Amino acid sequence: MASPRIRKAIFPVAGLGTRFLPATKAVPKEMLTVVDRPVIQHVVDEAKAAGVDQFVFVTGRNKGAIEDHFDYQFELERTLLERGKDKERIALAHDQPGAGNASFTRQQMPLGLGHAVWCARELIGHEPFALLLPDMLHHAKTPCLATMMAAYEKTGGNVVAVSPVPEDQTHLYGIVGVEDARQGISRITTMIEKPPQGTAPSNLHITGRYILDPEIFEILAEQEPGAGGEVQLTDAMVALMQRQPFHAVTFDGDIYDCGSKIGFLAANIAYALERSDLRGALRSEIDRLTSSTKL
Ligand code: UTP
């Protein structure tokens, strides 16, 4: 039987972004820009490119700017029209979800990623869905979620993107063990959130892209807090693995963790170097800064 089409995606954006204070005191971290697009817009672009057309945001306090960003801005549109700025106006219209295609629900307390996902249960209903962590920019010719969708058509069940990390960093991530790590798509045999050093089943970490069966919501409803006192999605996936298959898809592009300062800065440089309007000038600036005797 063919796997059902994935129409809906969840974007959990209720975290406090404490690593970016004071920038994130009044501005959601998902609205910080990588070049001239908010981080969240890059991730929505990835979902759109994979065929998603229903965007479900799990927001929290002080996240109103995200809702405004995906809304129609009447005064701005009219001003752009009057000033003949058609290129900018068309680009804005292109980025905007269609009427009724974006939904927002609130996670009143940041109790963990698993809890944030559970908050979207009524908006997702009884169909498989994608989940994209907006902090993690996945950069590749074929967008990560599109690669996962192609795998999902073959495997069904649940699909998780993974990527290798250095062995001494496995304790920082959700880690999976797989049947055959040499295959691009392989059945997951085990999964653990932040394993103590030296105990990880492999060096393949969960990168923040998932295709999940809605049965996960039943498990999340009962899920006790795990690592860090938070309701962990990985713990719920471990429980779901007893009932359904999970496959890992190895992502072979670049990943930028925009929840960390270095990842965010690296993403800005990498994405700007790809732009023909910025590349030359940015290279000159980098050369000037790195050859400075003050460094
Ligand atoms: P992080 O732990 O990286 O985000 O969660 P954070 O808590 O905002 O960051 P710091 O550590 O305080 O700087 C990964 C993703 O899960 C979401 C976050 O918004 C982020 O996109 N999240 C996390 C929630 O939506 N709710 C939560 O309770 C926790």
Keywords summarizing the entry:
Spore Coat Polysaccharide Biosynthesis Protein SpsA, Chain A, alpha/beta, two-stranded antiparallel ribbon, 34% helix, globular, 295 residues, binds uridine 5'-triphosphate
Question: Any overview of this molecule?
Answer:
Strand 9 (174-178) and strand 10 (185-193) form a beta hairpin. The protein has helices at residues 39-49, 64-69, 74-82, 86-95, 113-118, 121-124, 144-155, 215-222, 233-241, 261-273, 279-290; strands at 8-12, 33-34, 37-38, 54-59, 102-106, 129-132, 136-139, 158-164, 174-178, 185-193, 204-212, 246-250, 254-257. It has eleven helices and 13 strands. It has a single domain (8-259), classed as Spore Coat Polysaccharide Biosynthesis Protein SpsA, Chain A. The chain is globular, with a radius of gyration of 20 Å. The chain has a five-stranded mixed β-barrel with strand order 8-11-9-10-12. It has a two-stranded antiparallel ribbon with strand order 2-3. The chain has a two-stranded antiparallel ribbon with strand order 7-13. Uridine 5'-triphosphate is lined by residues 12-19, 58, 107, 110-113, 115-116, 133-135, 259.
Topology (SSEs and partners):
Layout: E1 8-12, E2 33-34, E3 37-38, H1 39-49, E4 54-59, H2 64-69, H3 74-82, H4 86-95, E5 102-106, H5 113-118, H6 121-124, E6 129-132, E7 136-139, H7 144-155, E8 158-164, E9 174-178, E10 185-193, E11 204-212, H8 215-222, H9 233-241, E12 246-250, E13 254-257, H10 261-273, H11 279-290
Parallel strand pairs: 1-4, 1-6, 4-5, 8-12
Antiparallel strand pairs: 2-3, 6-11, 7-13, 8-11, 9-10, 9-11, 10-12
Helix pairs in contact: 8-9
Bound molecules: uridine 5'-triphosphate (UTP).
Uridine 5'-triphosphate (UTP) binds next to helix 5.
